[in-house]
Design brief:
alpha/beta, Aspartate Aminotransferase, domain 2, 2 domains, 3-stranded antiparallel beta sheet
C-alpha cells in the first residue's frame, strides 16, 4: 500500500512517544500525574452548561448546522471582541466559527501556500502550526525564540532569500510553550514587517485571558492592524472557559482570509452542534466571573509549583501568563529533554513535555502544565526531587 509523501513530515511525533511512555508507566503500576497536556481540569461555567442543556430539549438544534445558522454566535463574538479590544467587527464577513483554534491554524495554510512556498514559524512553537504547513506542501523557516530576546523573534534575522519565497507568518502570544508575552509595539512591528514583505500574519491567541499578577491583558493583533489589511486571529474557548472538550473556537480578521478559510471548512466539516454554540454565546455574554476564577486558580497553582521547584533548588522564574511553567533542565539533563521526560514518567509516574517536542530551540527545557490542584503539584515535585537525587 502506498501513502502520500506528505505523511513523511508527520511521522515523527515526540508527544506520541510520550503517550507510549505514559502507557508503559501505567501498566507497570505507576500512578500517573499528567503535567504534559494543556487540557484544563477545571469545569466549564454553569451558564454555559445550562445553555447547552436547554438546547438538548430543542429538536431544531439536532440537525446539520450550516454557516448561515451560526449568525447568533458570530454576532456575540463580534460584540465581545469590540467591547474587549475596541475594534469594530463585521459578524457577516469577519468572523468564522471553528472546531477549536487548532482547526484554523492547521487549515489556513491550505488557503495561502502553494507547494514550495515558505511559512515563518516560531521555534519553539505549537506543533499544529508546522503540521498545517506540511499538509499544504509548504516549507518552514523557523524564527528562533531565545531567552536573551525575551522569547520574541528578531525579524531582521530572516534571510532575504527566504522572504522572497515567504507567504505566511504565524505568531502566538502569550506563548506556548515559553509563556512569553508580547507588547502592542511588538505587534505593530510585526504588522509593518508583514505589510512590507506581502505576508499574511496569523496570530494564535488561546491564552488571551490567562495572565497573572495584575498584568494588563495582552493585545490583539488587530489592534496593530485595525484595518485588518493582512491579519487573522484565532481564539478558543478551551482555556478561558474550560471548554476544551466542546471543541469551540473562532477566527476574526481580514474578510478575504475569513472567506478563504470558510471554503476549506465547507469541504472538511459542518459546524458543531448548535447547542455548543449556544453555550459559547452564554459564556461570552456572561459576567466573566468564571474567567477570573480560572485565572486565580492557575496563578495559585503557579505559585505553589514554582515555590516547590525552588525548594529543591530548581530555580525557575514565575511565568506571567499561560497555564504552563517553562523550565530550563538542570545538569546532567540539559540537552536531553526527551530522555529526561521518558525516564521521569517511567520511574515516577510524573508526565511532562520535552522542550525538543516544540522545536530545535526548545531543547534543554521541559514544559509543565498546571492542570492539577496545588497539593498534587507538590507531590509531583517531590517525586521529581527523588528522581533528580538518584
Amino acid at each position: 500500500m502506498r501513502f502520500a509523501n506528505r505523511l513523511q513530515a508527520l511521522s515523527s511525533n515526540v508527544f506520541a512517544d510520550m503517550d507510549q511512555a505514559k502507557a508503559q508507566a501505567k501498566s507497570a503500576g505507576k500512578t500517573i500525574i499528567d503535567l504534559s497536556l494543556g487540557s484544563s481540569d477545571l469545569p466549564a461555567s454553569d451558564i454555559a452548561i445550562a445553555a447547552i442543556e436547554q438546547s438538548l430539549d430543542d429538536p431544531t438544534t439536532h440537525g446539520y448546522l450550516l454557516h448561515h445558522g451560526t449568525i447568533a454566535f458570530r454576532e456575540a463574538v463580534a460584540n465581545w471582541y469590540t467591547h474587549r479590544f475596541g475594534i469594530e467587527i463585521d459578524p457577516l464577513t469577519e468572523v468564522l466559527p471553528l472546531i477549536g483554534s487548532q482547526e484554523g491554524t492547521a487549515h489556513l495554510p491550505l488557503t495561502i501556500l502553494n507547494p514550495g512556498d515558505v511559512a515563518l514559524l516560531l521555534d519553539p512553537g505549537y506543533p499544529s502550526h508546522a503540521g498545517g504547513v506540511y499538509l499544504a506542501g509548504g516549507q518552514i523557516q523557523t524564527m528562533p525564540l531565545l531567552a536573551e530576546n525575551q522569547f520574541l523573534p528578531v525579524f531582521g534575522d530572516i534571510p532575504p532569500s527566504v522572504l522572497a519565497k515567504a507567504r505566511l507568518m504565524v505568531l502566538s502570544y502569550p506563548h506556548n510553550p515559553t509563556t512569553a508575552i508580547a507588547s502592542l509595539s511588538f505587534f505593530q512591528e510585526a504588522v509593518a514587517f508583514c505589510q512590507e514583505h506581502d505576508l499574511v500574519l496569523v496570530h494564535d491567541f488561546p491564552y488571551a485571558d490567562i495572565v497573572f499578577d495584575g498584568i494588563k491583558l495582552p493585545p490583539s493583533i488587530l489592534q496593530a492592524d485595525p484595518k485588518k489589511s493582512i491579519s487573522i486571529e484565532f481564539f478558543t474557548f478551551s482555556k478561558s472557559y474550560n471548554m476544551g472538550g466542546f471543541r469551540i473556537g473562532f477566527a476574526i480578521g481580514n474578510a478575504d482570509l475569513i472567506t478563504a478559510l470558510r471554503k476549506i471548512k465547507a469541504i472538511v466539516d459542518f459546524n458543531q452542534y448548535r447547542g455548543i454554540l449556544n453555550g459559547a454565546i452564554a459564556a461570552l455574554e456572561g459576567t466573566q466571573e468564571s474567567v477570573k476564577e480560572t485565572v486565580d486558580k492557575f496563578q495559585q497553582r503557579r505559585d505553589t509549583f514554582i515555590q516547590a521547584l525552588n525548594n529543591i533548588n530548581w530555580l525557575v522564574k514565575p511565568p506571567q501568563a499561560t497555564m504552563y511553567v517553562w523550565a530550563k533542565l538542570p545538569d546532567p539533563w540539559q540537552y536531553k529533554s526527551i530522555e529526561f521526560c521518558q525516564k521521569l514518567v517511567l520511574e515516577t509516574g510524573v508526565a511532562t513535555s520535552p522542550g525538543a517536542g516544540f522545536g530545535k530551540q526548545g531543547e534543554g527545557y521541559v514544559r509543565f502544565a498546571l492542570v492539577h490542584e496545588p497539593d498534587v503539584l507538590e507531590i509531583a515535585v517531590k517525586k521529581i526531587a527523588n528522581f533528580l537525587s538518584e
